[in-house]
Amino acid sequence: MTQPPIDLASLSPELLRGKVAMVTGGGGGIGLATARMLMHAGARVVSVDLAGRSAAEGAESIECDLSDSAQVTRLFAAFDAAHKQLDMLVHAAGTTRDGVSWKMSDEDWRSVLSVNLDSAFFLARQAVPRMRSSGGGAIVLIASINGERGKFGQTNYAASKAGLIGLGRSLARETGKFGIRVNVISPGLIETEMTSGLPEVDRQRAIDETVLGAAGQPEDVAAVAMFLTSPLSRHVTGQVLRVDGGQLIA
Predict the structure, then answer these.
(1) pTM score, two decimals?
(2) Domain residue limits, the chain
(3) What is the CB neighbour count within 10 angstroms for residue 103?
(4) Which of 64, 168, 197, 241 sits CB 3.0–4.6 Å from 184 for a disulfide?
């Protein structure tokens, strides 16, 4: 079973009116759903992704390898040329290279840590001064329940997502005095391109772990990201919010 899509027409276009958001991984999955949802709520969105992936209609698109510090620096220079402020950053870009630890290559380990975790640090290092100068902002990092519980065959992925949780909480402590809120979303099984290659037996096992009996949609995560970037969560920071259908309580 899979949850039905969320009707974006029900969102108020005034909630994020006048705000500017940067969304990574905006060419698909959770990033694309988040970009669309933030735009429906009134925000201007800059979608960041690798070459060849289309952004949400109406979003500005910038190509960038987020694992490269120099490219992230150039990304923000391009952003500054077009925008006077950065109010929200949602980091949804990520990758997997699964394999048991004793057979994992250095490249498979390093590439996943670099794309998933190093990128978040590079982005935050650029975003925080900009948000600080404009009086505050909101950062949301997309982790995973596998970063909380571990997962067979995903030592690299689980380590990178656990790192995002520690990074997010540390950033929240560092930046709260500047009016910047930092939170982490920890999804379970979400129907995306990344999870579409799962063997059916593994997919069904993950669904059976939930108490809702269903896989989530990218919009389920995007809705929480919208909440965490909006004034509705003005007193929420340093938190990890699970969007997992109850997988970790089942």
Answers:
(1) 0.92
(2) 13-243
(3) 8
(4) 168
